[in-house]
Amino acid sequence: MGKLYEGITPELIAWVGQQHLFFVGTAPLAADGHVNCSPKGLDTLRILDARHVAYLDLTGSGAETIAHLRQNGRIVFMFCALAGPPKIVRFHGKGEAATPASPGWAKLLSLFPGYPGARAIIHAEITRVSDSCGFGVPKFEYVEERDTLARWTEAKKIEGLPLYRRQHNARSIDGLPSLDPVQ
Questions:
Q1: CA distances from 132 to 3, 112, 174 (A)
Q2: How far apart are CA 181 and CA 45, in angstroms?
Q3: CATH topology of domain 3-168
Q4: For residue range 85-95, what is the model confidence (pLDDT) as tens digits?
Q5: What are the residue boundaries of the structural domains of the chain, listed by start?
Q6: Three-state secondary structure along 88-126?
Q7: pLDDT of 10-22, one tens digit each?
């Protein structure tokens, strides 16, 4: 049976820290807009306290999360036990995207490893913490982190990333603004 929590407990922090994968879900306000669910990995998540989390957003093929947060702020983080006892945990909240031009960027960035291609840090105030059984989630064996994104980013070179972001990350698939053109 699912449980509601007052906040992110030390036990949940420890459990989340053992997961190699999490998902982020957002949606635009438009009824015909596309809901987005993005898998995240690497060492990109930080639980700041019982009500605040942040993750390092690396340059990728889209920027739906950023666009949706700019429009309405709604976000959910989902974690699934892929090994060990079954469990699903969700953090619902309101988030925003900090970019290199944002106040506090350097302080937030210092929380994460120096991954190339950091374009934003998503930080959220968590308003609801819950778990559920996860009985239907299959077990998977963790092998290793992929290095594909790092190799792709290095091939683009630091100079090529702003052009890529302007071409591929300026708007969501529904046309909402995401990254400012100068980033």
A1: 7, 29, 32
A2: 26
A3: Pnp Oxidase; Chain A (2.30.110)
A4: 999 999 999 99
A5: 3-168
A6: EEEEEEEEEEECCCCCCHHHHHCCCCCCCCEEEEEEEEE
A7: 999 999 999 999 9
pLDDT in tens, 166-177: 899 999 999 999
Kindly tell me if the per-residue pLDDT of 183 is higher than 60. Answer: no
Contact indicator for 140, 83 with CB cutoff of 8 Å: yes
Mean pLDDT of the chain: 94
CA distance 64 to 120: 12
> What pLDDT sits at residue 181?
65
Element (H, E) at 35: none
Say how far apart CA 165 and CA 159 lie, in whole Å: 11
Return the HEC string of 127-171: EEEEEECCCCCCCCCCCCCCCHHHHHHHHHHHHHHHHHHHHHCCE
